[in-house]
Amino acid sequence: MSTLRQLIGYFKLQWRGKNHIVGWRMKPDEAVAFFKRQGKTVVTFFGYSINYHDEEGMFKIVRDALSQYSPETTLVNIGATMGGLGAVYPLAKSMGFMTTGIRSTKVLARLDNNISDAVEHICFIQDKQSGGKLSGSNELSPTSQAMVACSDILIAIGGNDIARDELLEGKKQGKPIQYFPAEMNHEWAISRAERLGLPVPRSFLGSVHEVFGK
What we know:
The protein has 214 residues and is α/β, with parallel strands linked by helices. The chain has eight helices and seven strands. Strands 1-5-4-3-2-6-7 form a seven-stranded parallel sheet, sandwiched between helices.
């Protein structure tokens, strides 16, 4: 049933006609092959999938970072979402950059898949989870494996567990990493804590900061 829902989600995106879907049950090495064919340096941004507390500050970091690269030789890769860090897709396109996204097939089964209209090419990776480490393992899930393998330069603006796991693997592989502290939306974080019966957060900087902010 899950595969059927994913297939329906795939066709809905195809019908919408806003994105080029490179593949919807890809393996990480197939995604790597697609990116290599583009012949560009892949700058991947990592961060929150939810709204930022200071969205304008986040946009400034992205503008400043992208000003160091040429659209002719560089593409911008994120997680294909509309919200959170995905809000910079329109900015990247306006600056002339090709835009790409890597996402788990799991999202296709959702009624609201939150896929940005402004991401030009999307690789959907066959995965039973959204990313991060596989349960009970130090190995990354296929989506996160693809995210790291396809990236030449990793730029983090805040971020939580999945981003942290991917960045740690990128560091292990010797890839250049830049980290910029940024707070997640305070209201969302407090509401989530209350919903789960957890203490009110003392910090809104996310788990990436715990590793890369020191």
